[in-house]
């Protein structure tokens, strides 16, 4: 099976490259960062063009792991966030329609589309009320995938990823904790610590992608990608601090960070019916992440 991974140098993309290579897939890569690899397409940061890859190859699957994945960035640069998370997705869809119409297309959306839901756990049918431009843009990308399935017959699928983490991730909660703990005795975080997230370790996320490739109908389909485990930020942060630097003190400043939701836990019935079972718990996953950052130079 031939697969194209766009955003192959990023956190999820690079893990996808390793995972599917090990599964025996013929893996091609595309990224804005150059590479000497033979099966690689360089994508320009401005005026990006994805058509060449689909002109020259016939892929069975394309995974788009590119784009912005930072809520704060979307407030500072809404136009660029829109280009990365909406315009580029539309360009990929057009290239697939024109040159490789049988290709299964998986795009990474985000739990940010939900905002602050009134009822937990959050199912895929929950009303979407994003709290940030990033969330709105991810929702718009989902609509594009629905559009291109409905009107052009493309095989499309959106993954609403909750709080994915693991070795290689250089942003968000655990990276922030690492950087602060390495430089300060007191580690300060936004909020009260009682806010909750549904963390999913990268190894489990990759297994979900494989299940979806094998079992999804690709009819503009949407799936929550999470572990169905609600964990407070305080619990997660304390596990990390204990593992990485137990002498450091953890402090929550009580301030609300713009665009951040209060409580998240996902209903994962759809992926569970496909056969997904979580293999990495939050403590084990955080310990693996802490081990990785300890080894950084």
TrEMBL record:
Residues 3-226 form the NAD-dependent epimerase/dehydratase domain. It comes from Flavobacterium limi. This is UDP-glucose 4-epimerase. Belongs to the NAD(P)-dependent epimerase/dehydratase family. InterPro entries: Epimerase_deHydtase, NAD(P)-bd_dom_sf. It holds the Pfam family Epimerase.
């Amino acid at each position: 099976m031939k697969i194209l991974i766009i955003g192959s140098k990023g956190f999820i993309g690079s893990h996808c490259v390793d995972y599917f290579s090990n599964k025996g897939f013929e893996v091609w890569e595309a990224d804005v960062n150059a590479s000497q690899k033979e099966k690689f397409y360089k994508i320009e940061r401005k005026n990006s063009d994805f058509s060449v890859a689909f002109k020259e190859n016939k892929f069975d699957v394309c995974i788009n792991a590119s784009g912005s994945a930072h809520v704060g960035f979307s407030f500072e640069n809404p136009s660029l966030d829109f280009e990365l998370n909406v315009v580029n997705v539309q360009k990929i869809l057009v290239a697939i329609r024109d040159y490789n119409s049988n290709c299964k297309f998986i795009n990474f959306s985000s739990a940010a589309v939900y905002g602050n839901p009134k009822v937990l756990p959050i199912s895929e049918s929950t009303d979407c009320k994003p709290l940030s431009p990033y969330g709105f843009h991810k929702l718009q990308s989902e609509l594009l995938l629905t559009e291109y399935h409905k009107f052009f017959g493309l095989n499309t699928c959106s993954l609403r990823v909750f709080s994915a983490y693991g070795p290689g991730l250089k942003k968000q909660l655990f990276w922030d904790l690492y950087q602060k703990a390495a430089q300060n005795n007191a580690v300060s975080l936004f909020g009260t610590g009682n806010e909750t997230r549904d963390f999913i370790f990268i190894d489990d996320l990759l297994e979900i992608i494989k299940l979806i490739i094998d079992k999804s109908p690709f009819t503009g389909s949407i799936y929550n990608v999470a572990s169905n485990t609600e964990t407070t930020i305080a619990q997660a942060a304390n596990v990390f601090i204990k593992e990485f630097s137990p002498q450091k003190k953890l402090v929550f400043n009580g301030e609300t960070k713009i665009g951040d939701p209060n409580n998240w836990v996902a209903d994962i019935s759809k992926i569970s019916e496909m056969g997904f079972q979580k293999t990495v718990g939050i403590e084990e996953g955080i310990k693996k992440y802490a081990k990785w950052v300890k080894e950084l130079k």
